[in-house]
Amino acid sequence: MSVTQFFGDYPVMFPLLAGVLGLIIGSFLNVVIHRLPIMLDRKWREQCQELTETGRSSPERETFNLIRPRSRCPHCGHPISALENIPVLSFIWLKGKCSACGRPISRRYPAIELLTAILSLVVAWRFGFGTAALGGLILAWALIALAFIDYDRQLLPDDITLPLLWLGLLLNSFAVFTSLQSAVIGAIAGYVSLWGVYQLFKLITGKEGMGYGDFKLFAALGAWLGWQNLPLVILLSSLLGAVVGLAFILFFGRDRHLPIPFGPFLCFAGWIALLWGDHITRFYLQIARFS
After folding, report:
1. Residue 36: what are its φ and ψ, rounded to 5°?
2. pLDDT surpassing 60 at residue 55
3. Is 266 in contact with 217 (CB distance < 8 Å)?
4. pLDDT tens digit string along 200-234?
5. What is the pLDDT of residue 109?
6. The model scores a pTM over 0.85
7. Is a pLDDT exceeding 90 seen at residue 246?
8. Comparing C-alpha atoms, which of 185, 171, 183, 110 is closest to residue 136?
9. If residue 232 lies in a helix (H) or strand (E), which one and from where to where?
C-alpha cells in the first residue's frame, strides 16, 4: 500500500501526524524565535566592527547558532537533556520548573508548541496529503516564527521573509496555490503597496509607520497567495491590529504612543487567507452583489 493510498483510506491519520510533527517543529521554533535575533545582532556588530576597526581581530566567542550550544536554563545554565526537551510533556512532567534550580520555565514554550501543532493539524486537514499541505505547513511554521520575533524585537528577519518569497514563487510555478503570473504580480503589489503607504504616512506625519520587513512579508504572502488575496490580508490584519491596539490601550493601560508591531497581524491574516481566502472573498462578493 502506497503512502497516498494509506492516507486516502485513513484520512484522519495525516492531520494527526501533522499535529505531532507540529509539536516537534514548535520546539525548534522556540529556538529560532529566541536565537535568530541574537545571531543577527552579533553578525551586524561584527560587520560594524570590521568596518570601524580595520586590522583589529575580534575576540573569539562561543559558537552560537540554531544548533549549538545546547538549550539550557536561563537562570542557572543547566543543560536541557533530551528527556527534559520533549514538547509539552516535559513541561508537564517538570511541573513547569527547572529540574536543577526549581525556577519557573516560561509557559510560552509549550504554548508555541501547542499552537504549532494545532495550526499544522488544521493545514493538513484543509489540504489533505500532497504538495499543497507541505507548502502550507512550511508557510504556517515560518509565520509563527515571524510573528513572535516581531512581537519580541519588532524585527522581521530577511533570513526568513526572503526565502519565503522565493519558495512561494517556486511552488506557484507549478500552480500549487495560484498561477505563477498571479504570484509574481502579488509579490510586486505586496511590496509596492505597503512601501507607498509608508512613504505617504512619513510625508504627512514625519514618522515611520512600519518597517521594511513588513513590505517583504507582504510581498512573500503575495507570492504564496496571489494578488487576489492581498486586499483580504491587509483588511483583516488592519482590522485585527486596530482592535488589539485599542484593547491594549483601554484595558491594559498601554501608552498609545508606543508602536505595536504589524507583523503578527499580517501573519495571522496570511494564514487565514491561505486556508479560506477564496471562500471569504467569494462570500463577500456574493453579499455585495445582493446588497
Report:
1. -60, -45
2. no
3. yes
4. 888 888 877 788 899 999 999 999 999 999 999 99
5. 95
6. yes
7. no
8. 171
9. helix 230-252
CA triplet 227, 190, 240: central angle to 5 degrees? 95
**What residues have CB less than 8 Å from 73, skipping those under 6 apart?**
80, 98, 100, 101, 103, 105
Give the bridge partners for 72, in sequence order: 79
The contacts of residue 191 (CB under 8 Å, 6+ apart) are 215, 216, 218, 219, 222
- Which residues on adjacent β-strands are paired with residue 104? 97
For 122, other C-beta atoms within 10 Å of its C-beta total 18
Q: Letter for the amino acid at 147? A: A
DSSP letters for 127-185: H-SSHHHHHHHHHHHHHHHHHHHHHHHS---HHHHHHHHHHHHHHHTTTSSS-HHHHHH
The per-residue pLDDT for 47 is 84
Q: Note the pLDDT tens digit of each residue in 4-52.
A: 788 877 789 999 999 999 999 999 999 999 999 999 998 898 888 878 7
Distance in angstroms (rounded) separating the CA atoms of residues 275 and 170: 19
Give which of 157, 186, 146, 152 is closest to 169, Cα–Cα. Answer: 186
Contacts of 261 (CB under 8 A, 6+ apart): 150, 151, 154
CA within 13 Å, CB half, 283: 6
**Cβ–Cβ < 8 Å for 220, 161:** yes
CA dihedral 75, 102, 36, 82 (to 10 degrees): 130
Residue from 258, 190, 249 nearest 218 by CA: 190
Question: How far, in Å, CA of 182 to CA of 277, rounded?
Answer: 14
> Residue 146 pLDDT more than 70?
yes
- pLDDT band at 247; cut points 50, 70, 90: confident
**3-state secondary structure (DSSP) of residue 125:** helix
